[in-house]
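Question (not urgent): is this output format expected?
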Amino acid sequence: MIIVGGVLTVLALVVAGFFIATWAPDRPVEALKARWAPPPSQFVDVAGMKVHLRDEGPRDDPSPIILIHGTGSSLHAWEGWVPALKERRRVVTFDLPGFGLTGPSPDGDYSLEASVRFVTAVMDKLGIAHAVLGGNSLGGTVSWATAVLAPSRVDKLILVDSGGYPSHSISVPLGFRVARMPGLNQVLSYTLPRFLIATGMRNVFGDPSKVTEEMIDRAYEITLREGNRQAMVRRFNQPRRTALAGRIPEIKVPTLVMWGGRDRLVPPDDAERFHDDIAGSTLVIYDDLGHAPEEEDPVRTVVAVKQFLSRE
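Got this back:
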């Protein structure tokens, strides 16, 4: 019994030490703005939220480009593409509800339909009747779903390692798995090991060495934005609905499907499926890149985007 008691004491000390070392309370958005929301960032009232967005390039663009980030990410994911696009095109990026500096949705609804309503509400707020929609991962899902549910608002699509079909991931970041575990996921409200963020980011890059310390710092600090961790848990535990994927063949707008050949979260066979389901779509696969090509190699990948956008 003495031995068992000693083991339990040591275990309790280890657990307590872990919590002390990784204790990470929420941070108010005001504490994060100086570093992560410099100009041209702005905060706009949409759907009861102060939405963090950037609206760059010429305002007379008849079909602006709207780029939507993936799960656990933010508008910063597109910082490599925007400079190459905004010289001639109006480019809008923003943080989805529950991510980045926008913070949680007031109604706690993170369904795909709610995301589509949010995107069209942002467009209405900015006076954009229709646009080119592009997105990575979750952002790709929201983009094509908008083309299905609000087709008059979408001129073209850019799907970058997009979600949509039933999941068959080869590897899922540990943080995503923890967010789905009842009980354990509640711990994320009070603690956030930095290594959890670092390993997650390296897991989705084709070349993990391309993940910089600044990328990790940004993802870590923004995840601590008040309400984001609770929103992440709620999002992951809402019922998954894939019925809308059956309507992907209804999409008729010009579509560019871009993929990283080393994507283990959404494997490249989904790229082939999007290409087959969307008539006339263009498929580009980068064999050496992972799940976030726009961040891993923005210079090379934006070339294909500019070529696609130049076509009538």
